[in-house]
Write a structure and sequence with these properties.
This is carnosine N-methyltransferase. It comes from Kluyveromyces dobzhanskii CBS 2104. With 397 residues, this protein is an alpha/beta fold. The chain has helices spanning 3-20, 22-40, 43-48, 52-80, 95-112, 117-120, 124-134, 153-160, 172-183, 206-210, 220-224, 237-241, 257-265, 285-295, 346-355, and strands at 143-147, 164-169, 191-193, 213-215, 230-234, 270-276, 296-306, 318-324, 331-338, 359-370, 384-393. It is built from 15 helices and 11 strands. The strands form 3 sheets. The chain has a 7-stranded mixed beta sheet, sandwiched between helices. Strands 3-4 form a two-stranded antiparallel ribbon. Strand 6, helix 14 (285-295) and strand 7 (296-306) form a beta-alpha-beta unit. The protein is globular. Bound molecules: S-adenosylmethionine (SAM). S-adenosylmethionine is lined by residues 110-111, 147-150, 168-171, 174, 236-237, 252, 276-278, 281.
Length: 397
Amino acid sequence: MDTEKEDDKILLERTANSFLCYKQYALDEFWRPRVLKWESLSEHQKRMLPWYESYLKDVRNGIETNSIFYLNLLEQSVEMWGLNTDPRSWPIPSAVDMSKTVSILNQIAREWSSICAEERDKFLPLVREFLEESFPSGRDTVKILIPGAGLCRLAVDMVQLGFNTEANEVSYHMLMVGQFILNSDLQEEGIALHPFVHSFSHHINRAQQLRQIHIPDLNISERVVGENLLSMVSGSFPDIYGPNINIKQSESYSNSAAIREIRAENRNSKDVVVTNFFMDTSSNILDYLETISHVLKDGGYWINFGPFMYHFEQDHQTELTADFDPCTGEVSNELNTPLKGIELSHEDVIQTATTYFPFKPIKQKAGIPSTYGTDVNDISMLGYQCSFWILQKVSIK
Ligand SMILES: C[S@@+](CC[C@H](N)C(=O)[O-])C[C@H]1O[C@@H](n2cnc3c(N)ncnc32)[C@H](O)[C@@H]1O
Protein backbone atom coordinates (compact mmCIF):
# COMPACT_ATOMS: atom_id res chain seq x y z
CA MET A 1 0.00 0.00 0.00
CA ASP A 2 1.47 3.44 -0.87
CA THR A 3 1.85 6.05 1.90
CA GLU A 4 -1.05 8.20 0.73
CA LYS A 5 -3.47 5.24 0.81
CA GLU A 6 -2.09 4.19 4.18
CA ASP A 7 -2.66 7.71 5.59
CA ASP A 8 -6.23 7.67 4.25
CA LYS A 9 -6.88 4.29 5.91
CA ILE A 10 -5.59 5.63 9.24
CA LEU A 11 -7.88 8.67 8.97
CA LEU A 12 -10.86 6.53 8.00
CA GLU A 13 -10.34 4.11 10.87
CA ARG A 14 -9.87 6.99 13.31
CA THR A 15 -13.16 8.47 12.09
CA ALA A 16 -14.86 5.08 12.41
CA ASN A 17 -13.47 4.75 15.93
CA SER A 18 -14.90 8.16 16.84
CA PHE A 19 -18.34 6.82 15.86
CA LEU A 20 -17.72 3.72 17.97
CA CYS A 21 -16.63 5.83 20.98
CA TYR A 22 -19.55 8.28 20.63
CA LYS A 23 -21.69 6.86 23.44
CA GLN A 24 -18.94 6.79 26.05
CA TYR A 25 -17.71 10.22 25.02
CA ALA A 26 -21.16 11.83 25.02
CA LEU A 27 -22.06 10.33 28.40
CA ASP A 28 -18.78 11.53 29.93
CA GLU A 29 -18.93 14.95 28.35
CA PHE A 30 -22.61 15.87 28.55
CA TRP A 31 -24.49 13.55 30.89
CA ARG A 32 -22.20 12.51 33.76
CA PRO A 33 -21.15 16.04 34.85
CA ARG A 34 -24.84 16.96 35.13
CA VAL A 35 -25.57 13.88 37.21
CA LEU A 36 -22.72 14.87 39.54
CA LYS A 37 -23.97 18.44 39.68
CA TRP A 38 -27.47 17.25 40.49
CA GLU A 39 -26.16 14.96 43.22
CA SER A 40 -24.21 17.87 44.70
CA LEU A 41 -27.34 20.00 45.27
CA SER A 42 -28.73 20.41 48.78
CA GLU A 43 -31.90 18.43 49.50
CA HIS A 44 -33.73 21.76 49.70
CA GLN A 45 -32.74 22.65 46.12
CA LYS A 46 -33.36 19.14 44.80
CA ARG A 47 -36.99 19.45 45.91
CA MET A 48 -37.37 22.50 43.62
CA LEU A 49 -36.62 20.38 40.54
CA PRO A 50 -38.59 17.18 41.10
CA TRP A 51 -38.44 16.39 37.38
CA TYR A 52 -34.67 16.68 37.06
CA GLU A 53 -33.71 13.04 37.57
CA SER A 54 -36.10 11.88 34.92
CA TYR A 55 -34.83 14.64 32.60
CA LEU A 56 -31.28 13.32 33.05
CA LYS A 57 -32.54 9.84 32.18
CA ASP A 58 -34.02 11.30 28.98
CA VAL A 59 -30.69 12.93 28.12
CA ARG A 60 -29.03 9.55 28.56
CA ASN A 61 -31.68 7.84 26.42
CA GLY A 62 -31.18 10.45 23.68
CA ILE A 63 -27.44 9.74 23.63
CA GLU A 64 -28.15 6.01 23.50
CA THR A 65 -30.48 6.47 20.52
CA ASN A 66 -27.78 8.45 18.70
CA SER A 67 -25.23 5.75 19.43
CA ILE A 68 -27.46 3.14 17.80
CA PHE A 69 -27.35 5.21 14.61
CA TYR A 70 -23.55 5.12 14.70
CA LEU A 71 -23.45 1.39 15.38
CA ASN A 72 -25.72 0.72 12.38
CA LEU A 73 -23.53 2.99 10.27
CA LEU A 74 -20.40 1.09 11.32
CA GLU A 75 -21.94 -2.24 10.37
CA GLN A 76 -22.13 -0.99 6.79
CA SER A 77 -18.99 1.12 6.72
CA VAL A 78 -16.42 -1.53 7.57
CA GLU A 79 -16.99 -3.34 4.29
CA MET A 80 -17.90 -0.27 2.25
CA TRP A 81 -14.64 1.52 3.15
CA GLY A 82 -12.40 -1.56 3.45
CA LEU A 83 -11.64 -1.05 7.16
CA ASN A 84 -9.92 -3.59 9.39
CA THR A 85 -12.70 -5.80 10.77
CA ASP A 86 -11.21 -5.69 14.28
CA PRO A 87 -12.06 -2.25 15.78
CA ARG A 88 -9.42 -2.80 18.47
CA SER A 89 -6.82 -2.10 15.75
CA TRP A 90 -8.35 1.29 14.87
CA PRO A 91 -6.35 4.39 15.89
CA ILE A 92 -7.58 6.40 18.88
CA PRO A 93 -9.76 9.34 17.78
CA SER A 94 -8.63 12.88 18.65
CA ALA A 95 -10.70 15.41 20.63
CA VAL A 96 -11.48 17.10 17.29
CA ASP A 97 -12.70 13.79 15.83
CA MET A 98 -15.02 13.35 18.82
CA SER A 99 -16.43 16.85 18.62
CA LYS A 100 -17.11 16.34 14.89
CA THR A 101 -18.95 13.13 15.73
CA VAL A 102 -21.21 15.14 18.02
CA SER A 103 -21.72 18.15 15.73
CA ILE A 104 -22.41 16.08 12.62
CA LEU A 105 -25.73 15.11 14.23
CA ASN A 106 -26.79 18.76 13.75
CA GLN A 107 -25.55 18.57 10.17
CA ILE A 108 -27.77 15.50 9.66
CA ALA A 109 -30.73 17.53 10.96
CA ARG A 110 -29.82 20.42 8.63
CA GLU A 111 -29.64 18.29 5.52
CA TRP A 112 -31.94 15.32 6.04
CA SER A 113 -34.76 16.28 8.40
CA SER A 114 -38.01 18.08 7.76
CA ILE A 115 -37.41 20.43 10.71
CA CYS A 116 -34.71 22.24 8.70
CA ALA A 117 -36.75 22.42 5.48
CA GLU A 118 -37.30 26.14 6.00
CA GLU A 119 -33.56 26.67 6.45
CA ARG A 120 -32.76 24.76 3.24
CA ASP A 121 -35.42 26.78 1.45
CA LYS A 122 -33.41 29.96 1.92
CA PHE A 123 -31.25 28.81 -0.99
CA LEU A 124 -32.87 25.93 -2.85
CA PRO A 125 -35.61 27.95 -4.61
CA LEU A 126 -33.02 30.55 -5.74
CA VAL A 127 -30.75 27.96 -7.33
CA ARG A 128 -33.65 25.87 -8.69
CA GLU A 129 -35.33 28.79 -10.40
CA PHE A 130 -32.12 29.88 -12.13
CA LEU A 131 -31.10 26.38 -13.25
CA GLU A 132 -34.58 25.46 -14.51
CA GLU A 133 -34.67 28.61 -16.61
CA SER A 134 -31.10 28.28 -17.90
CA PHE A 135 -31.29 24.57 -18.72
CA PRO A 136 -34.85 23.76 -19.85
CA SER A 137 -33.80 20.43 -21.42
CA GLY A 138 -30.94 17.93 -21.71
CA ARG A 139 -30.15 18.34 -18.05
CA ASP A 140 -28.51 14.93 -17.67
CA THR A 141 -25.61 16.30 -19.75
CA VAL A 142 -25.27 19.44 -17.62
CA LYS A 143 -22.47 18.88 -15.11
CA ILE A 144 -22.85 20.45 -11.67
CA LEU A 145 -20.05 20.39 -9.11
CA ILE A 146 -20.77 21.00 -5.40
CA PRO A 147 -17.57 21.46 -3.36
CA GLY A 148 -17.90 21.05 0.41
CA ALA A 149 -21.06 19.05 -0.25
CA GLY A 150 -21.45 17.93 3.37
CA LEU A 151 -23.95 15.07 3.54
CA CYS A 152 -24.98 15.54 -0.11
CA ARG A 153 -28.53 16.83 0.35
CA LEU A 154 -28.13 19.66 -2.15
CA ALA A 155 -26.51 17.19 -4.55
CA VAL A 156 -29.58 14.93 -4.29
CA ASP A 157 -31.83 17.97 -4.86
CA MET A 158 -29.85 18.73 -8.04
CA VAL A 159 -30.16 15.12 -9.24
CA GLN A 160 -33.92 15.35 -8.63
CA LEU A 161 -33.97 18.25 -11.07
CA GLY A 162 -32.26 15.96 -13.58
CA PHE A 163 -28.70 17.33 -13.44
CA ASN A 164 -25.50 15.30 -13.55
CA THR A 165 -24.06 16.14 -10.13
CA GLU A 166 -20.64 15.62 -8.54
CA ALA A 167 -20.39 16.13 -4.77
CA ASN A 168 -16.89 16.90 -3.48
CA GLU A 169 -16.04 16.65 0.22
CA VAL A 170 -12.80 16.60 2.19
CA SER A 171 -14.02 15.39 5.60
CA TYR A 172 -14.15 11.65 6.30
CA HIS A 173 -16.84 12.29 8.90
CA MET A 174 -19.06 13.83 6.22
CA LEU A 175 -18.12 11.22 3.62
CA MET A 176 -18.82 8.22 5.85
CA VAL A 177 -22.11 9.55 7.22
CA GLY A 178 -23.14 10.79 3.76
CA GLN A 179 -22.39 7.43 2.12
CA PHE A 180 -24.40 5.64 4.80
CA ILE A 181 -27.42 7.91 4.37
CA LEU A 182 -27.29 7.69 0.57
CA ASN A 183 -26.51 4.03 0.11
CA SER A 184 -28.36 2.13 2.81
CA ASP A 185 -31.80 2.09 1.28
CA LEU A 186 -33.16 3.93 4.34
CA GLN A 187 -36.89 4.10 4.83
CA GLU A 188 -38.38 7.57 4.81
CA GLU A 189 -38.21 8.91 8.42
CA GLY A 190 -36.89 5.48 9.44
CA ILE A 191 -34.10 6.67 11.75
CA ALA A 192 -34.63 8.47 15.05
CA LEU A 193 -32.02 10.87 16.40
CA HIS A 194 -31.64 13.46 19.17
CA PRO A 195 -29.27 16.01 17.59
CA PHE A 196 -29.90 18.80 20.13
CA VAL A 197 -29.39 16.69 23.25
CA HIS A 198 -25.77 17.87 23.68
CA SER A 199 -26.68 21.54 23.88
CA PHE A 200 -27.99 22.85 27.21
CA SER A 201 -28.47 26.54 26.40
CA HIS A 202 -31.05 28.54 24.46
CA HIS A 203 -34.03 26.26 25.04
CA ILE A 204 -37.49 27.62 25.57
CA ASN A 205 -38.37 24.35 27.27
CA ARG A 206 -36.76 20.97 27.94
CA ALA A 207 -38.76 19.24 25.23
CA GLN A 208 -36.86 21.25 22.65
CA GLN A 209 -33.52 19.95 23.77
CA LEU A 210 -34.78 16.38 23.91
CA ARG A 211 -36.67 16.59 20.63
CA GLN A 212 -36.46 13.53 18.43
CA ILE A 213 -36.08 13.98 14.69
CA HIS A 214 -36.63 11.39 12.02
CA ILE A 215 -34.46 11.08 8.95
CA PRO A 216 -34.34 11.02 5.98
CA ASP A 217 -37.28 13.27 5.15
CA LEU A 218 -37.59 11.65 1.71
CA ASN A 219 -37.06 8.26 0.14
CA ILE A 220 -33.57 8.75 -1.25
CA SER A 221 -33.27 5.56 -3.26
CA GLU A 222 -36.49 6.32 -5.14
CA ARG A 223 -35.08 9.70 -6.17
CA VAL A 224 -31.47 8.86 -6.94
CA VAL A 225 -30.80 5.20 -7.66
CA GLY A 226 -30.86 4.05 -11.28
CA GLU A 227 -30.34 7.53 -12.65
CA ASN A 228 -26.54 7.32 -12.36
CA LEU A 229 -26.45 11.06 -12.04
CA LEU A 230 -24.78 11.37 -8.63
CA SER A 231 -21.11 10.86 -7.82
CA MET A 232 -19.02 11.64 -4.74
CA VAL A 233 -15.39 12.68 -4.95
CA SER A 234 -13.25 12.66 -1.84
CA GLY A 235 -10.51 15.27 -1.40
CA SER A 236 -9.78 18.95 -1.08
CA PHE A 237 -11.48 21.15 -3.68
CA PRO A 238 -8.38 23.02 -4.97
CA ASP A 239 -6.34 19.82 -4.83
CA ILE A 240 -8.61 18.01 -7.26
CA TYR A 241 -10.16 20.71 -9.41
CA GLY A 242 -7.65 23.60 -9.27
CA PRO A 243 -5.11 24.73 -11.87
CA ASN A 244 -1.48 23.54 -11.72
CA ILE A 245 -0.27 27.13 -11.50
CA ASN A 246 -0.85 30.13 -9.20
CA ILE A 247 -1.64 28.08 -6.07
CA LYS A 248 1.04 27.27 -3.51
CA GLN A 249 1.57 23.69 -2.44
CA SER A 250 0.00 23.23 1.00
CA GLU A 251 -1.89 20.71 3.11
CA SER A 252 -4.96 21.20 0.92
CA TYR A 253 -3.14 21.35 -2.41
CA SER A 254 -0.58 18.64 -3.13
CA ASN A 255 1.88 18.11 -5.90
CA SER A 256 2.24 14.51 -7.10
CA ALA A 257 2.35 13.76 -10.84
CA ALA A 258 -0.96 11.86 -10.47
CA ILE A 259 -2.81 14.77 -8.87
CA ARG A 260 -1.40 17.25 -11.40
CA GLU A 261 -2.82 15.04 -14.16
CA ILE A 262 -6.26 14.89 -12.48
CA ARG A 263 -6.30 18.69 -12.15
CA ALA A 264 -5.36 19.11 -15.83
CA GLU A 265 -8.20 16.73 -16.82
CA ASN A 266 -10.70 18.70 -14.71
CA ARG A 267 -10.00 21.98 -16.54
CA ASN A 268 -13.12 23.47 -18.19
CA SER A 269 -15.15 20.37 -17.27
CA LYS A 270 -18.21 21.71 -15.39
CA ASP A 271 -21.21 23.78 -16.43
CA VAL A 272 -22.09 24.95 -12.92
CA VAL A 273 -20.29 25.16 -9.57
CA VAL A 274 -22.58 25.57 -6.55
CA THR A 275 -20.97 26.71 -3.28
CA ASN A 276 -23.29 26.54 -0.27
CA PHE A 277 -21.85 27.61 3.11
CA PHE A 278 -18.46 26.79 1.63
CA MET A 279 -16.41 29.84 0.58
CA ASP A 280 -15.50 30.77 4.16
CA THR A 281 -13.93 27.36 4.79
CA SER A 282 -10.87 28.58 2.87
CA SER A 283 -7.55 29.52 4.40
CA ASN A 284 -6.88 31.49 1.21
CA ILE A 285 -10.10 32.27 -0.64
CA LEU A 286 -8.12 33.17 -3.78
CA ASP A 287 -7.26 29.46 -4.14
CA TYR A 288 -11.01 28.75 -4.31
CA LEU A 289 -11.49 31.51 -6.92
CA GLU A 290 -8.63 30.07 -9.01
CA THR A 291 -10.22 26.65 -8.74
CA ILE A 292 -13.77 27.68 -9.66
CA SER A 293 -12.46 29.61 -12.64
CA HIS A 294 -10.32 26.64 -13.75
CA VAL A 295 -12.99 23.95 -13.45
CA LEU A 296 -15.84 25.88 -15.11
CA LYS A 297 -16.41 25.80 -18.86
CA ASP A 298 -16.59 29.14 -20.67
CA GLY A 299 -20.17 30.34 -20.21
CA GLY A 300 -20.51 28.27 -17.01
CA TYR A 301 -22.07 29.61 -13.80
CA TRP A 302 -20.86 29.96 -10.23
CA ILE A 303 -23.78 30.06 -7.83
CA ASN A 304 -22.98 30.93 -4.21
CA PHE A 305 -24.92 31.10 -0.96
CA GLY A 306 -23.46 31.48 2.52
CA PRO A 307 -21.94 33.69 5.18
CA PHE A 308 -18.42 35.04 5.59
CA MET A 309 -17.59 33.37 8.88
CA TYR A 310 -14.04 32.41 8.05
CA HIS A 311 -13.23 29.05 9.63
CA PHE A 312 -9.53 29.83 10.11
CA GLU A 313 -9.98 33.33 11.50
CA GLN A 314 -9.19 32.23 15.07
CA ASP A 315 -6.77 29.43 14.12
CA HIS A 316 -3.22 29.90 15.39
CA GLN A 317 -1.72 27.01 13.46
CA THR A 318 0.67 27.25 10.55
CA GLU A 319 1.27 25.00 7.57
CA LEU A 320 4.16 24.50 5.16
CA THR A 321 3.55 26.11 1.78
CA ALA A 322 5.85 26.07 -1.26
CA ASP A 323 6.17 26.88 -4.94
CA PHE A 324 6.54 23.99 -7.34
CA ASP A 325 7.29 23.48 -11.00
CA PRO A 326 4.01 22.38 -12.68
CA CYS A 327 5.91 20.12 -15.13
CA THR A 328 8.53 18.48 -12.93
CA GLY A 329 6.96 19.01 -9.50
CA GLU A 330 10.25 20.41 -8.19
CA VAL A 331 9.59 22.30 -4.92
CA SER A 332 11.13 25.63 -3.89
CA ASN A 333 10.58 28.50 -1.43
CA GLU A 334 9.20 26.46 1.45
CA LEU A 335 7.55 28.74 4.00
CA ASN A 336 5.83 28.32 7.34
CA THR A 337 2.53 30.12 6.69
CA PRO A 338 -0.37 31.01 9.03
CA LEU A 339 -3.69 29.34 8.25
CA LYS A 340 -5.56 32.56 8.97
CA GLY A 341 -5.16 35.65 6.89
CA ILE A 342 -6.99 36.14 3.56
CA GLU A 343 -10.54 36.82 4.71
CA LEU A 344 -12.23 38.78 1.92
CA SER A 345 -15.64 40.44 2.23
CA HIS A 346 -18.58 39.92 -0.14
CA GLU A 347 -17.63 43.04 -2.09
CA ASP A 348 -13.94 42.07 -2.20
CA VAL A 349 -14.81 38.67 -3.67
CA ILE A 350 -17.06 40.10 -6.37
CA GLN A 351 -14.55 42.81 -7.22
CA THR A 352 -11.66 40.32 -7.43
CA ALA A 353 -13.67 37.74 -9.38
CA THR A 354 -14.83 40.28 -11.97
CA THR A 355 -11.47 42.08 -12.28
CA TYR A 356 -8.82 39.37 -12.12
CA PHE A 357 -10.88 36.33 -13.13
CA PRO A 358 -13.13 36.03 -16.18
CA PHE A 359 -16.44 36.43 -14.34
CA LYS A 360 -19.36 38.75 -15.00
CA PRO A 361 -22.12 39.30 -12.44
CA ILE A 362 -25.59 37.97 -13.22
CA LYS A 363 -27.29 38.40 -9.82
CA GLN A 364 -26.29 39.20 -6.27
CA LYS A 365 -27.87 39.88 -2.91
CA ALA A 366 -26.34 40.30 0.55
CA GLY A 367 -27.80 40.08 4.05
CA ILE A 368 -30.11 37.08 3.66
CA PRO A 369 -30.71 35.79 7.20
CA SER A 370 -30.29 32.06 7.73
CA THR A 371 -29.78 29.62 10.56
CA TYR A 372 -27.51 26.57 10.33
CA GLY A 373 -28.71 23.19 11.60
CA THR A 374 -31.52 24.61 13.72
CA ASP A 375 -35.26 24.94 13.26
CA VAL A 376 -37.59 27.90 13.49
CA ASN A 377 -38.17 27.28 17.23
CA ASP A 378 -34.55 27.99 18.05
CA ILE A 379 -34.29 31.06 20.29
CA SER A 380 -30.52 31.41 20.31
CA MET A 381 -30.64 33.97 17.49
CA LEU A 382 -27.40 32.38 16.34
CA GLY A 383 -27.86 33.00 12.66
CA TYR A 384 -25.89 34.26 9.71
CA GLN A 385 -26.26 37.01 7.18
CA CYS A 386 -25.75 35.18 3.92
CA SER A 387 -24.65 36.35 0.49
CA PHE A 388 -26.14 35.00 -2.70
CA TRP A 389 -24.65 35.54 -6.11
CA ILE A 390 -24.52 34.11 -9.59
CA LEU A 391 -21.48 34.90 -11.72
CA GLN A 392 -20.88 33.68 -15.26
CA LYS A 393 -17.48 32.72 -16.62
CA VAL A 394 -16.97 34.62 -19.84
CA SER A 395 -14.83 33.40 -22.71
CA ILE A 396 -11.30 34.94 -22.75
CA LYS A 397 -10.33 33.86 -26.28
C1 LIG B 1 -20.13 24.63 6.57
S1 LIG B 1 -20.06 23.06 5.84
C2 LIG B 1 -21.33 23.17 4.57
C3 LIG B 1 -21.83 21.82 4.15
C4 LIG B 1 -22.98 21.90 3.14
N1 LIG B 1 -22.56 22.55 1.93
C5 LIG B 1 -24.15 22.62 3.74
O1 LIG B 1 -24.49 23.72 3.26
O2 LIG B 1 -24.75 22.09 4.69
C6 LIG B 1 -18.58 23.18 4.90
C7 LIG B 1 -18.18 21.86 4.29
O3 LIG B 1 -17.04 22.06 3.45
C8 LIG B 1 -16.13 20.98 3.66
N2 LIG B 1 -14.80 21.46 3.26
C9 LIG B 1 -13.99 22.32 3.94
N3 LIG B 1 -12.88 22.55 3.24
C10 LIG B 1 -12.96 21.82 2.10
C11 LIG B 1 -12.10 21.64 0.99
N4 LIG B 1 -10.94 22.27 0.90
N5 LIG B 1 -12.52 20.82 -0.01
C12 LIG B 1 -13.73 20.19 0.06
N6 LIG B 1 -14.57 20.30 1.11
C13 LIG B 1 -14.20 21.11 2.11
C14 LIG B 1 -16.29 20.66 5.13
O4 LIG B 1 -15.83 19.36 5.44
C15 LIG B 1 -17.79 20.82 5.32
O5 LIG B 1 -18.48 19.64 5.04
